[in-house]
Amino acid sequence: MVEPMTGYLGAWARATPEAIVVEQFRDVVPASTWLIDAARTAVESGRVLQLVTGARSGLTFPMESLLGDARAGWVVRDEGGGHRDGFLGLPLDWNGSRFVPEKGATIPPPRKYSPGSGDLEVRITTSFPAGEPLKLGRSTDIAMRALTGTGPIGWGVAEPVTEPWSVSGISAHCTRRAPASAIVVGEGVTGRLQVSQVDDVVVEEVRLSGPAAGSVDTRRIEDLAAECAGTVRQMLVGAAPGRTQGVRSAIPAPPALPYGVLFGHELVSAVGIAHVHRTPAARVRLLGAGDRKAVWCRFDGGASAPFEQLTDILHHYATPAGS
């Protein structure tokens, strides 16, 4: 049974026992307040959010991240009336309750992109054990200044953001209702900051998209790695070919091509310097001082592909991706 949903979810939402289906036929779909509410409602009710857009629509990076975090789906309606997965290109059918893969359908090969094309993508994870001062938003500020030369401009709980940049404002919002998230913006950069708590440890994860990967001097990335070395748990830098100017197109694209990964002092202390020196990456550098040394691994110039190097490194440290 399909029921229309009205009120705070907007006029284009439909609910079934398995899904909340939202239609947004606009050039760029942002993470608006009611889409965030729709995602929350879907998760809390044990259903999946499925966002339906046109073939020419794009998603802002915060909206793309929201779909990933909510394990939601992006359904693209082609001009001929067919449907496909917006990320993978897999043909989809409506089964009466939700969109599902067509019987016998396979994922088509993604379009080929030049290596390093698209937006720069940065993901930084920082842990704050009990007793340590909470410096939420600091990684966002460091990353934006390193990559663009200017700090963050604003933040908010949805797009468009409504608050001027404020570390104290971010901290108050995230600590008051953890787990919590906020959208952050800068000059040519947009992203999402999430805060959660595991036992007595507060974990902050920042994901940023932009500027264009080809426009960022590698020295800026090196400076970012050096500045993050003493504080972050992990940083992953790559280039997302399917995303430009913070907007993901509806043309299926491969995942972000990794450029480098930084592991913080906690891991370095745990495995030892000798193990670090054996890291299977094209370029390996120890950064930081004293007992807060980090290891920065770059994949450019290696004999194997960046994805293979990243996989080898994760096996080397027995560390799951993103942890």
Q: Could you characterize the architecture of this molecule?
A:
- This protein has 323 residues and is of the alpha+beta class.
- The protein has 8 helices and 22 strands.
- Helix 3 packs antiparallel against helix 5.
- The longest helix has 12 residues, at 33-44.
- Mean pLDDT is 91; it is low at 6-11.
- On the 0-100 scale, what is the average pLDDT? 91
Low-confidence stretches: 6-11
Class by alpha and beta content = alpha+beta
| Overall helicity | 10-25%
Q: Based on CA inertia axes, which overall geometry fits?
A: globular
- Number of strand elements: 22
Question: In DSSP terms, counting alpha (H) and pi (I) runs of 4 or more, how many helices?
Answer: 8
Q: Report the β-strand fraction as a percent range.
A: 25-35%
Q: Report, as a whole number of angstroms, the end-to-end distance.
A: 40 Å
Q: What is the rounded Rg? A: 20 Å
- Succession of helices and strands: EEEEHEEHEEEEEHEEHEEEHEEEEHHEEH
Strand order, sheet with most strands: 13-12-14-15-16-11-17-20-22-21
Instruction: Give a short account of the largest sheet.
Output: 10 strands, antiparallel
Query: How many domain units?
Result: 2
SSE topology:
Blueprint: E1 3-5, E2 13-15, E3 19-23, E4 28-29, H1 33-44, E5 48-54, E6 58-60, H2 61-69, E7 73-77, E8 83-85, E9 91-94, E10 99-101, E11 119-128, H3 138-148, E12 154-156, E13 163-164, H4 167-176, E14 180-186, E15 189-198, E16 201-212, H5 218-228, E17 234-240, E18 243-244, E19 247-249, E20 257-263, H6 265-271, H7 273-277, E21 283-287, E22 294-298, H8 306-317
Parallel strand pairs: 3-5, 4-6, 5-7
Antiparallel strand pairs: 1-2, 2-3, 6-19, 7-8, 8-9, 9-10, 11-16, 11-17, 12-13, 12-14, 14-15, 15-16, 17-20, 18-19, 20-22, 21-22
Helix pairs in contact: 3-5
